[in-house]
Design goal:
Blueprint lengths: L2 E8 L1 H9 L14 E2 L5 H15 L4 E10 H4 L4 E3 L6 E3 L1 E2 L3 H6 L1 E12 L8 H15 L7 H11 L6 H17 L6 H6 L3 H14 L2
Antiparallel strand pairs: 1-3, 2-6, 3-7, 4-5
Helix pairs in contact: 5-6, 5-7, 6-7, 7-9
């Protein structure tokens, strides 16, 4: 069966209900929530999980889920663009959510975790840039330092909770991008941003905690 991969940002409460379903279904919408909004790309879902769930939820956590949904089922719904072209989503009426759940192939997966709190002076774009560096380091593709690799993985999984350790990791990653001759040329390839972007981010994090 042909499927379409969709993503959904969720908070801890919704995630617990998904887990309780055996990772098979999203929970019913609340009365004030007439539409269910799965989105079509991971970056958009991550933006919401990071900038909304991890900021406004009580436990400061946000998650990105991924599910494969029957293409035949989704053919009955239009894709909606609600901002930039990357802000694409499906609008599923709340009363049809059970049909959506029945069209999910396999299990719902959690693929990203965000923990809110201190960003150490970095704006959203700079913070996302350092997360890209952490992702490369955590996959073993950018840093040979075992402590950086481990810390990057913990950071991306929401398990690096000590703010001082978070700041140390972000600073180390930015210094690799700016000061290490063996790595500085790689950062623009990995992130699409020039080295000057890393320089500005490193300056910001150092000025904030001078």
């Amino acid at each position: 069966m042909s499927t379409v991969t969709l993503y959904r940002p969720v908070g801890s409460a919704e995630l617990k209900l998904i887990e309780a379903s055996g990772w098979k279904a999203f929970p019913p919408r609340l009365p004030e929530q007439p539409i269910f909004y799965p989105v079509t790309n991971q970056a958009y879902a991550a933006q919401i999980a990071r900038d909304w769930n991890a900021v406004h939820n009580d436990d400061k956590r946000g998650y990105v889920t991924r599910s494969d949904v029957s293409a035949e089922f989704l053919a009955g719904y239009d894709r909606k663009v609600v901002g930039g072209r990357e802000h694409e989503e499906y609008w599923i009426p709340a009363e049809e959510l059970s049909l959506f759940n029945a069209a999910i192939e396999g299990q719902i997966e959690v693929i990203e975790t965000f923990v809110g709190g201190e960003r150490f002076g970095l704006d959203g774009e700079q913070y996302e840039y350092v997360r890209q560096l952490a992702n490369a380091a955590g996959n073993g593709a950018w840093s040979n330092d075992a402590s950086v690799v481990t810390a990057s993985r913990d950071f991306l999984n929401g398990e690096l909770l000590d703010p001082s350790e978070q700041r140390r990791l972000l600073t180390d990653l930015l210094r690799l991008a700016v000061e290490d001759p063996s790595h500085e040329w790689e950062a623009p390839i990995l992130t699409g941003q020039p080295t000057s972007f890393a320089v500005a981010a490193l300056k910001k994090i150092n000025e904030t905690h001078a």
